[in-house]
Design a protein that fits this description.
Helix content: 40-55%
InterPro entries: Integrase-like_N, TACO1_YebC-like_2nd/3rd_dom, TACO1_YebC_N, Transcrip_reg_TACO1-like, Transcrip_reg_TACO1-like_dom3, YebC-like
Subcellular location: Cytoplasm
Strand order of the largest sheet: 3-1-2-9
Order of helices and strands: HHHEEHEEHEEHEEHEE
Number of strands: 10
Oligomer: single chain
Largest sheet: 4 strands, antiparallel
Keywords: Cytoplasm, DNA-binding, Transcription, Transcription regulation
Number of helices: 7
Main location: cytoplasm
Strand content: 15-25%
GO molecular function: DNA binding
């Protein structure tokens, strides 16, 4: 029994690590797509794309994943990808938005709907939850090794054109108008800051506590969506219990 228990624990940690890695790859794939879409799909002519590719390599992202993300943006192979957003409720009534890049909307819609159904949630109509989110630019700077006080960071962020800032123990979160995100990013980089995140995203206006008896289903939904290659982003308004894994 002890051997089985040990295997079960190790397998559980491996599954958690795989899920975390999947979310990292998902985020990088989206960044690759956006960088290639906004500029030249050839990294030799696109500095932003080169930076994201370097980040992908640092995260040990497989080359096939990198190539697939760039191909989606450039239309290599003749496939035409569309950006589609799905809205729904996770278990516990938590608002969730799913952004996808797909060459087959029927396939993607079916997979997203199944993910919600499997977890005990429900897919809604367009506009059913999007009003609960605000579209903002988000820039994150890690505090580890950064010799800056919260006041100094706030002043630099405001000087760069940011609207607001939130500080946690791990990082500074800087919020901007979506149209100003790039200019604020560039201004902070010119000041010497190394940015962990610089993106336009959807921020929930409020968080909904996930009931303890719904945590497993909630995590299952997020994991199933994350595992879908068509899904580029998941915006969710859930607040998990502090002791939830």
């Amino acid at each position: 029994m002890s051997g089985h228990s040990k295997w079960h624990n190790i397998q559980g940690r491996k599954n958690a690590q795989d899920a975390k890695r999947g979310k990292i790859f998902q985020k990088i794939s989206r960044d690759l797509y956006q960088a290639a879409k906004a500029g030249d799909p050839d990294p030799a002519n696109n500095a932003q794309l080169r930076l994201v590719i370097d980040k992908a390599h640092a995260a040990n992202m497989p080359k096939k994943n990198i190539d697939r993300a760039i191909a989606k943006a450039s239309g290599i192979g003749g496939a035409k990808f569309e950006e589609v957003t799905y809205e729904g409720y996770a278990p516990g009534g938590v608002a969730v938005m799913v952004s996808a890049l797909t060459d087959n909307k029927n396939r993607t819609a079916s997979a997203v709907r199944s993910a919600f159904t499997h977890a005990g949630g429900s897919l809604g109509a367009s506009g059913s939850v999007s009003y609960m989110f605000d579209r903002k630019g988000l820039i994150e700077v890690l505090r580890d090794g950064l010799d800056k006080s919260e006041d100094d960071m706030l002043m630099d962020a405001l000087d760069a054109g940011a609207d607001d800032m939130k500080a946690t123990d791990e990082k500074f979160q800087i919020f901007t108008d979506p149209s100003n995100m790039t200019s604020v990013r560039d201004a902070l980089q010119e000041k010497g800051y190394e940015l962990d995140t610089a993106e336009v995203t959807m921020i929930p206006q409020n968080r909904t506590a996930v009931p303890e008896d719904k945590v497993k289903q909630y995590n299952h939904l997020i994991d199933e969506l994350t595992a879908n290659d068509d899904v580029a982003d998941i915006y969710e308004a859930g607040q998990l219990p502090e002791d939830a894994e």
